[in-house]
Amino acid sequence: MHGKYIEVTNESRFEPTEKNLDGEHHIDRGFITFDKTRKLLVYRQFNNEGYVNQYVLSDSLSTEADLVFETEAIENFVPGGKARFTIKIIAENKIETTFDVSFPNKDFSCFGINNLEKK
Fold it and tell me: Which residues contact 13 (CB under 8 A, 6 or more apart)?
């Protein structure tokens, strides 16, 4: 698509627990785009649980090393809930991603951290 989008793919498997005896297989796909009208980066994420997240890059929370995306809309989630996706640049070939969720009237809680290294 002529380099206009950054595609993001993720697949995670979670072992069974007392609360989730079957474990979990999470898959999400998304695209980071530049919205020319609003002059900001938008990340649209679709996952196999049926949630669709639309994040925007937060200028107030982001730095050169940390890109912080916060939801402006979530489909099929608890009304008033929010999500945050952070990409932390560790080195030229390493990043760390953090996924945080906030339920209505609650602080954000970390739902997962991934460390990725380009080989």
Answer: 23, 24, 25, 26
Helices then strands, counting H and E runs in the chain, come out as 0, 8
Pairing of strands 6-14, 94-102: unpaired
Burial of 47: CB neighbours in 10 Å, binned 0-12, 13-18, 19+: middle
CA-wise closest residue to 6 among 42, 36, 49 = 42
C-alpha–C-alpha distance, residues 119 and 112, integer Å:
22
Q: Please report which confidence band the pLDDT of residue 2 belongs to, taking 50, 70 and 90 as the band edges.
A: confident
Report the alpha-carbon distance of residue 38 to residue 10 in Å, rounded: 27
How many Cβ atoms from other residues are within 10 Å of residue 102's Cβ? 17
pTM here? Answer: 0.87
CATH superfamily name and code, 6-117: Calycin beta-barrel core domain (2.40.128.20)
